[in-house]
Structure formats: C-alpha cells, structure tokens
Specification:
The structure holds two protein chains of two kinds. Chain A is an all-alpha fold. Chain A is 63% helix and 1% strand. Helix content of chain B is 60%, strand content 6%. The chains are: A mainly alpha, B mainly alpha. Chain B: Its main location: nucleus.
Chain lengths: 399, 580
Amino acid sequence: MSASDLKHALRKFEYPACAKEALFKMEQLLIGRSAPSSKQQDIAMDITSEFIFCEVDRRGVRRGTGLNPLQELQLIDILSEYISTCNNETTKNTIFLSLFGSMESQRKLKILSILASMAVSASCTPVLLALGVWLQQMGCSSPQSLKLAQSVIQDHFYLNTTNQNCLKSLATTAPQFVSNFITAVTDLYMCDSQGASKMPPKNLLEVITSWVYSNPTLCMSAQLNPAALPVGAIPMAVVTPLAGLIHWCALASLYVQDTNTVEEEPPIKKIKIEWETHVKPNTTNYIKESELYTKLHLAVLNSLRAGKRSHLPTASVNAQHLVSLTPMVQSYAHQLVKKGFKLQNDKKLQDCLDRIGQAVQVALANNCVYGNISNLLASLDTLPENKLLQIIIRKHQCV
Amino acid sequence: MPAIDANMNESDEDYIISRAKEAQKHNIHSAKAWMLTAKTLFPTNFKIQFEAYLMEKQSGNVQEAAECFSSLMGSRQNLSDLLPEISLIANALKSNEPCFLCQMFDKISPDIQLTILKTSVENSDDTMEHCRLLVLLLKKFPQLGVDSLVKTLINAEKFFSDNKYARLLVVETLPLLSSLESPRLLQRLVVKAMDFYNTYIYEDNEHDITDPWQRLFSVLDLLGKQLAWDPYLVNYNNTLNRETYLQNLLTLRSTEDCRQLLYCGLSFFLRSLHEYKSLKGNHILVESLVDPDLPPSKRRKGDIEVTGVSAYQFQTAANCWELLHSNDIISREFMKLTSQLQTKPWLEGFTDELALYRGQYEEALPISNKTSLTSNIIRVSIHYFQKNYTSCVETILAALTQLPSLDGVLEADLIVGGKHRHLHFLPLTKVAIVHYFCSILIRILLNTGNTADLTYGHMLVLMQLGWPQEESIFLHILDVFRHKGVFHYHLFSAYIIHIDILEELSYIWNEQGKTIVLDILPNSQQHLGQRRIGTRGADKGVKDDFKQAMKAQVARANESVLNLMIQFITSERSYLMQVL
C-alpha cells in the first residue's frame, strides 16, 4: 500500500478515530523482522504528524493550532488504551518511541506529560514501562526528560499529597520507570553550587526514600531489565539514580535546616481552600527531613551492595559524577573559612564528608564504580580533612 | 587534604566502630551506614563484622543479623571468637521457644547452620551438653547419620550412673534413627532401649514418656528390618493380642539364629511382666482347690488353671519365660542379655511364683527364716499339696495371728470345677485368707479318711465361711448321717450358726423319717449320754430342747462367721490335731 493510499484510507476517519486507525497503520509500517526502511519511517512520521498530533494538514502545511484540549484528552485516552492492550513489548516501545522519540515540539511533550501523570495516578503499568524506556532512550537528564519529571512532580508531589501509598507501590510494578524517573529527579535539585536554593519537596523525598529503602535492587532495575527496543535501535546507556542520590544525601548534610519551628509550619498550599481548618502535622509519624536523608543514604548504600549480593551487573555509578560533588563541597568550605570557622569542627561539613566517604567506599568495595577511579580518589583528596576519607583514600591507593 | 597527624593512637577500625556506636544512640540508619562502610573497609576484621552483627541483633533485624552472622561464619579463624555467640544460638535452639536467635538461625543457609551446630557440638566440654547439641544437630540434619552420636552416647562413661544419657539416647536420639550400618551397634541400642524403658516404667515417677513399650518396639523394628525379621513380631500392635503373639514366637524355637526370639521374646516378656506386676498389687499366687462336682471352667487352657487378678498376664509372662528357657542355648543367651538390664523385675516374686506355677515346691517354699504372712500362706499352700498336714495346720495357726486388718470379700473362684491343678491369685485380705485356710482344712479333714463325727462336725463348721462353695461335701456328710443314724458333735452350739446348715439339719431331723439322732447340745448342759435329742425318743421335752437349741443357734446368725472361724481354728487346735 502506497503512502497516498494509506493517507487516503485514514482521511475517511474523523478525529479521534483517525488517530486510532493511524496507530495500527504505523504498526504495519514499522514492525517487521528487519528494521523499517527510511521511506517507511518517513511515511510513519507523516502519518503521526497529520493523523495523530494534527501538526500538519493534508498538504503537509504546518497548522498553527494543533489539537484542541478535548482532542488532546481523546488522544491520551487512545494512546493509553493502545499501549495497555498491546501485548508485544517491542511493538509497544517501537510505536511509543516513534510517536514521542524525536521531540522538539512542546505540544507533544505536554501531551506526554499528561499521559505520564495519568499513568502514575492510575498505576497504569504498561504506560509507565513505556515511559521508562522513553526516559532511558531520551537520556534521563535530557531537557525533555527533566521536563516530564517536573510535570509529574508538579501533579503528584505538590498538588496531591494523599497518594503516597499508591506511589510507593510503583517501585514494584514499574521499577524501570521509577528508577529512570529518580535519575531525572536527582538532576532537578541540589545540582549547582547554589544547591541550597533548590531542595526537593519533602513529599517527593519521602516517596523516593521509601522506594529505594524498600527495594534495594530498584536503582539497578533499568540495568537488570534491558528495554525491548525497536529493531535496529541503539540502546542508550542506563544511568542509575545512585550517583544523583549520593549527591543529594551528601549535600543535604550541608543544606537541610532542621529546626522545629520551620517544620511545624503547614506546607504552603497553592490552592487555598476556605473551609479547610488548620491541621497539625501528625507528630507520631513525623520524620525530620534530615532523618529522611539519613535513611535515604543508608538505602543507597544497601542498593550499592545489592548488586554484588545478587550477582548483578554492577557498573552503576560513574566516577566522574561523584567527582562533580567536590566543587560544591569545596565552595561550602570556602564560605566557612571566610567566616573564620574551623573546618574540622563544622558538623555539617564533616557529616557531608562522612557520607561521601561512606558512599564511595561501599560503591568501590562492591565494584559499582566505572570510569576513572584514581581521578575520583585524587579529587576526594582535595576535600577538607576528614578521617574516614583519609582511611578510604589510603586503603584504595594501596591496592 | 592535609597530612594525617593527630589522633592516630586510635586504630581505623576502632575509630569507625566508635562512630557507629555513637550514631547508634540517636539514629540507627546512620549507625548502619557506618557499619556498612566498616564492613567493606575491613571485610576480614572480626571486630567490625561482629559489631555489625550485634547492631542488627540489637535492632531486632532477623534477616540482616542472619546475613552478618553468616558472613562471620564464613571465615574459619573467626570460629573461636564466635563460640560464645554460637553457644547462645545453640541454647536458644535447645530451649525450643521462639526467640530472635532461633528465627535468625532459620534464615541462615543450611551449610552454615550445620557449621554452627557442629562447632557448638565440638566445643561443648560436658558430654551431656555435647550429646544434647548433637541431638539438636541431628534433628536439623538427619542426613548426617546418627551413628556418631549414638556411639558417643553409648560409650559415655556416665551412661550407667546418669540416666539422663540413656534418656537422651533412647528417647531423643533413637527416633531420629532410620537405619544404622552396624547391626552390632543396633543390637546394643536395642538392649539400651530395653534397659531404659524397663527401668523407666518401674522407677520413674514422672511418667512423662508416652507409650514406652511402643517406643521400644519401634527400636526393635529398626533391628528387625536390618536382620530381616518377621515384621509381625516387631510390630507393637501385634503384642496386644498376647495369645497370637506368643504362638508366633513359639514358631521361632527351632531357628538357628535365636536373636529374633530372644529380643522380641524378652521385650514381650518384660511387657507382660510389667502388666502382671502392675495388676497384681496385693495378691499372692497360691495353690488353690478344685471340685470335681462343679462344672468345669471354660476359660481353662492347658493342664493348669490360674485364676484371680493378673492371672492371664502372669501366664503370658510365665509361658514366655519358659519359651526363653526352652533350650540351653536360648537360656544362656537370655542370661547374657538380661545381665545387661539394670532392673530385673522377675527377681522380685516372679521367679518364686513361677516355681510354684511349675510345681517346683522345694524352690517355691520360702526359706525358714521368713515368717511373714505371705511366706506363711505360701507355706500353707505347699505343705497342703505335699500332704504335710501337720505342718500345714501349724502354719495356718501361725498365719492367723498375722492377719491384715482389711476384711475384703469372698473369692468366688477359689474353688473351680474339674480335676486339674488350679492356682489362684489370692488377695491379702482377712476374708480371702481365712476362707482359703478353711477350704484347705476341709480338704485335709476329708483326706484323712477319718469318719469320726468330730471330723464331720469340724468340716461343717469350716464350710460356713465359704458357703455354699462346699455344698457337695455338705450333702455327702448328710448322707453319712442318714446312713449312721446319729451325729454327735459337742462343738455344735459353739460354732455352727449358718442358717442354711441349721435349716438342713432341722429338716432331716423333722422330716427324714425320724430315724436320726442328733447329739449336738453342749457338754455344759449335761445332756450328753443321758438325754439324746432324737426323733427316736418320743420324749416331747427332748424335742423342745432341740428346737430351743436350734433357735439359739439361729439367733446367732448375724455373728461374724469370719471371727468365728478364726476363733474355732485357734481354740480347737487340739481337736484339729487330734483328727490328724
């Protein structure tokens, strides 16, 4: 069937029926024993633009408006239904990546973000798994991935804080998604020298801590379960959330202000509800943010061990990623020196260095670090004095 | 980073442990992070690994503690330092109560569990402790084979002095045994088990072991399987049917290898003996009496009838004993085997009763310095059957002074129908003993062949206690009276008070053709020789006298016949002897 015949057939349908039909046509074009030809891919892209996202009209001219909000919802409905009922992982991922894989369009990203949000709230595993593959193939730290992560955070960790149990279960139903999602999230907070200005919301921190603490292999799940990619596609390197979480925990020692007066303030609400009375935080279940980071830190250490214990591939932490911690710590130390404090006596700094030491040591001992390890040790040696770091450096330089 | 200078007197390990312990005070997660780091930094350092373990243990993390302990166990050089903890675990397991260490133990892989238990076994100084731990080990790892434990136990020096070993071996260990390579060892075990359970049932007051005999037979079963014995004989349930079981044992008499007969027979014998002994209580075996005029008993099997409590069990034990002594080889092996048993229940009473049962009177006769009531009763029994009547009566007289205070009741089966030999388990009660004596005295009087009125009169007196058991003799005596036409007994008014006898005598005096002279008024009334109460004399006064005398006797009908008998035998000793 030629391209024009295909399009002709699809033009008989109105939106959204044509989008639904288009998905099956794409399947015919893209799924086969061998990789689709570039011509087939072009046709698929044309169909996507015209019949699914309505970016161009029948003559291929760009349309200004695209989908209206109702059509967006109709499309999201069709997509989640299609993904949920597709019983072949490769087919599903092929279609999903071809729809959203090359994304310059902010409109598409918006649709994908809504789809992701809905999948999270509905615990729709097939969609979440497809999103996990998408995050990995786009690169978890790519602008698109960060945007998607931000959108999910906005929907589920700011606006809605009553869904923790539902969110916690995702770590077991869609671990690849959760793992890649955390990787993206770690890049959103505490990642520049002014880290203190951008801390993750407590709700997010709680859920991530729970995820990692309860599932020691979660952070490796994208490594453990290679994505079923389209024929001929190049798998992107998996970046585990571990390095990012090590950053968080180390820097949290420096940035988290745990004072009771601050903690007892109710969280700032974006929407003010008139009749809502002031609810005191439940003190029995109340965990300080600093304690959450301590727990998360232990969870990270356990995850680092999990690889070795279950004989899994363990190259999960990039040495360079850890090296990038040092300038942040050093700049904090400079501030202290400037104020005339002694570095050995600063508890926050020493806690931070202890955590860095612990994470590096456990990661090295479990063969989790890849990249230039001697460079990592050298960079640790430039950090302010800390007994644990000294022990670790001595130990690994001897080897 | 500045050069390392100060505070180096503390070792790296100690530094990290101290940080972990410090952190443990306020945040367990932080403490664990330190411990995790320490463990990877010093993977072979015992102190650190052990601290990590302790920390998990203190926080009650079963899985983590198990992992820590497993990794500690991974290195052999740690073992000596782990001994205290290993013994804590072993103790926890022994206690059989749910606890942290038991749960932890369950989470440890089997090979390390094995090492833990083996180490605890190897390092227990006390043999008892050692064996207990071995039992624990074998309960968890039966595939290890129980042989070594069994050997240790059986060779334990204290085995004989300390029953705890035997108990551990027999009760705890043997059930774990499914087979044993060495039949010799197994044979020793069977003997141990016999010895233990046999002693247990006689001496243990707690009785906390259920079905000791069944347990003994399950050990026999092991040996039986190995030596291809008849499965019937090693099955406990079959021993419940004593008769059939004994019949099955009997078929083994001629087999060359007498072990099967010996072990099964001895077990069965011990069991029957115990049943007999526990039933027997305060009964003693005596030669008893038969009456050819009574219908023969249906229960009798063989030439000898044994009646009374525990008779059946006694006969089973006795027959089994005979079987185990049926030839020289078996007797010798039996001696060898039983010499290994500490408790020999047959030595107390059973062998004497067995001698009596076999009619070996010389053996059964108590030695002369034994003057207990029991010995005297047995002497009475034997003297009577040896027709040594004077000694018999003298012994009866001696025994009458020793009667127990308990009255008891008449034994219905003291005399059975037939002409065979009859033995009876006589209860040691006043009535039963005196009844037995009276019955014997009647037979003695009968056997003298003396036809004097005095003899018949004594018999009438003596048969009152067991009445109507000797009715046939009574009827015989009445026939004699009718034939002779006269009965002269001056002790009549003193000792004959039984209403039936009085009635019978009145009846023949009144109705039987008025041909009988009954001279039964006491001497004191001076009627003897002058005024005969008879049917022949038409003297009405005489008739009235007789009626009066009878009335007087009937009035005494409620007196204790028992006491009357004792009084009679004791007081009329010279008359009795005179008859003899």
